[in-house]
Amino acid sequence: MTETADQPRQSATPPPAGSLQRWAYDYVTSTALDHKLAPGPLPERVLEGGAPLRLAQPGRPAQLRVSSEKTKTPGSGALRDPKRRAELLHTFLHHELQAAELMCWAVLAFPDTPASFKRGLVGICHDEIRHMRMYAEHIVQLGCAVGDFPVRDWFWSRVPNVQTPAAFVAVMGLGFEAGNLDHTRRFAERFAAVGDERGAQLQEAVAHEEIAHVAFAAHWFRRFEGELSFARWERALPEPLSPMLMRGDPLNRSARGQAGMDDPFLDALEQWQPVSRGS
């Protein structure tokens, strides 16, 4: 690809050792499951500026078999089977892994953002990693193991299309993580309904921590864009992503409100419908 004036120069080499950026680079590119689950202490040094480094794909441990096939989410009745619950938790674990990796991806892709933004991203990454370990532990309790089910790198096929830090927080924090506030409540009810109290507690714990993640995104979207309105957020989403992918049914309005989304935003999100080609 030929470099143009509108296209920032991309770094072709890993960041210097001992920097937060190198920690992020090593996390994304690692192919060791142990490293994905426990990447080690963070360095204090945060590099300022430099060329963007936009990693195209993550390293994948051999235990994780990546598939392009979509699997149907098990219904409430199917979750009576411990293996189906383990399979669902395995999907959630992989969502957390992709989120952790993509927080690190953004640290590298947007070098001109403030150090506090970069540290915040890595802080969220650590939360996602802890969620992974929680899910992994319960998967074992259900008689399965990490790697027993295929995974889809769905987030990775979409999020790296963002071109600005505002678009990144619009997609990841205000989009997918905010949507998870809706989904976790629904799945907590489903796990509780089949007597899996630990599974329900995990969903509730993840939902509680996701509120802070969404609030972080709301704060930085306002910093980058000047305001957080539904119209401005929708414009920030890169095609083909749309608000429909960023919401559950019903919305968890209480949790979303705690994270900084006001009623007009939530009303617009709830009412949003795709525009038909013929209109």
Domain count: the total is 1
Query: Strand portion, in percent?
Result: under 5%
**CATH topological fold name:** Ferritin
Count of DSSP strands: 0
Q: Regarding CATH, which class?
A: Mainly Alpha
* Overall CATH architecture: Up-down Bundle
Question: What are the salient characteristics of this protein?
Answer:
279 residues, 54% helix, mainly alpha, Ferritin, disordered N terminus
What does this structure look like?
With 279 residues, the chain is mostly helical. The chain has one domain: Up-down Bundle (Ferritin), CATH 1.20.1260.10. 54% of the residues lie in helices and 0% in strands. It is globular and about 50 Å long.
At a glance:
The protein has 279 residues and is an all-alpha fold. It has helices spanning 20-29, 33-37, 82-109, 115-141, 165-193, 197-225, 230-236, 253-258, 263-271. Residues 1-8 have low confidence and may be disordered.
Would you spell out the secondary-structure blueprint of this structure?
Blueprint: H1 20-29, H2 33-37, H3 82-109, H4 115-141, H5 165-193, H6 197-225, H7 230-236, H8 253-258, H9 263-271
